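Can't paste images in this forum, so I'm doing it all in text. The chain is below; anyone willing to post the predicted structure tokens underneath?
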Amino acid sequence: MTRAQADVRDAVPDDALALQSIWLDFAETRPADRQSRETRETSMVEQIERSILRFETDPSERLLVALIDDIAVGVAHLRRAPLSPMHPDDAVHVGYLHVLSNYRRRGVGRQLLEAAADWADEKDSQHIVATVAARSRDANRFLARLGMSQVAVVRASTVVSLRAKLASGGKSAASHIVAARRLTRRTGRQASD
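Text version of the structure:
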């Protein structure tokens, strides 16, 4: 398989339709995304265009698009922010790094991360933090091969769902089952001792 050189640049509003297809490809790989494809597509292009316009005026964010033969095949969202609340250093946070399935293993992801590193150098940021889906084995292996280690687990929820769990004490049926299994294992181990 040949490694085609991708053209990596900032996204422009005309990229919205192509970016939609990349994000739909990304969403289809996420089992938690249960919305119908038609619902996602109706207003997505307009939302993407608005986001691109916002990125053009925000010096701390960029949306990169990778093109091969003028076809958008990859995307990465870059955001410059503190490494953590305790560190004075800024980092470039890379999110929504995704390459279309048919264009993987051609160096596109590497070129997107090279562009992120170039921007980090330009902004005097010493760190790159990349976020990928925990279930994406390929993406996690790719980042590990580049020397990036796991430093956190990111979890997400809607505000409504979180408030409901907080109000109920955070206990769910699943947590009761897990607790019962642990107790059973502990009891079994103590009986065998």
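Confidence is low (pLDDT under 50) at residues 30-34. The radius of gyration is 21 Å.
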